[in-house]
Amino acid sequence: MDHLWHGGPHFYFDTALFPPTTDSFSLGYFARPKRDDDVCDLGCGAGLLGALLLAREPSLRLVNVEQNGDALALAERTFAENGWAAAFHAGDLRDAATLPAAGSMDYCVSNPPYFRAGSGKSADSATRQNAREEAQCTLSDVCAAAARVLRWGGGFAMVYRPERLTDLLCALRGHGMEPKRLRFVVPTADAAPALVLVEAKRGGKPGLIVESPLVIGGEEWDKVYFR
After folding, report:
1. Is the pLDDT of residue 207 over 60?
2. Type and span of the H or E element at 210
3. Which DSSP string corresponds to 171-191?
4. Averaged pLDDT for residues 8-31
């Protein structure tokens, strides 16, 4: 167990499952659901991303989708002990029966597997492998799930690897979601990006805003970690 900030909301995690990462904190800061939005976290893991969103905007109505039972149990504990109301859907996001009703969500978020299956050394467990690689769930699967549950005009925010940015933008557009905001996360101001954050709009018109990079450890970084 750890706290988002000293004396603030706490969250549970297991390093053998989905440990807290810069990726989740960056996405939690970048995503822009509006007050009272219905939000779906596709592949919520232990629920850290949802905790970050609710800590910033408690009015959100959150639906967590996750197939790993151990991770989902940690998410349920985090939300219950912080007094946050949330729904939990256990199952595979590729199965429509697992997802919220079609067109029912205002906003979606996801920290999906980054690497193609077999593209490098696999993780040391099936759970970690599924979180890192497209061994089961692909980028296209995640985008298809978001497109299904989002209302027309709804937003979808993701964190991904820069070297697969073309794949990400093509997958979003291919599933009817137009990329509207893009921001790189960089280790230092003069370094190559380590992560990319993208927000798309279902049924949106072309037009992409590239925001200034988010520098790890920079002045703005304090806001990412609630400092």
Report:
1. yes
2. strand 209-210
3. HHHHTTEEEEEEEEEESSTTS
4. 94
User: What are the residues whose beta carbons fall under 8 Å from the beta carbon of 170, sequence distance 6 or more?
Assistant: none
Residue 66, beta-bridge partner list: 90
- Decide: 202 and 150 in contact? Cβ < 8 Å: yes
Which alpha helices (H) appear in the chain, and where do they start and end? 22-30, 48-56, 69-81, 126-132, 139-149, 165-174, 221-224
Whole-angstrom distance, CA of residue 88 vs CA of residue 90: 6
Range scoring the smallest mean pLDDT among 25-29, 84-88, 94-98, 133-137: 133-137
Report pTM. 0.92
111 touches 23 (CB < 8 A): yes
Distance CA 136, CA 131 (A): 9
Beta carbons of 200 and 169 less than 8 angstroms apart: no
In the 8-state DSSP scheme, what is residue 48?
H
In contact, 79 and 51? CB cutoff 8 Å: yes
Beta pairing partners, 177: 202
Whether the per-residue pLDDT at 159 is higher than 70: the answer is yes
Q: Looking up tokens 């979601």, which residue turns up? A: 177
CA distance readout (Å), 24 to 19, 179, 190: 10, 20, 23
Read off the amino acid at residue 87: A
Structural domains in the chain? 2-224 (3.40.50.150)
pLDDT single digits (tens) 48-70: 999 999 999 999 999 999 999 99
How many residues can be counted in the chain?
Answer: 227
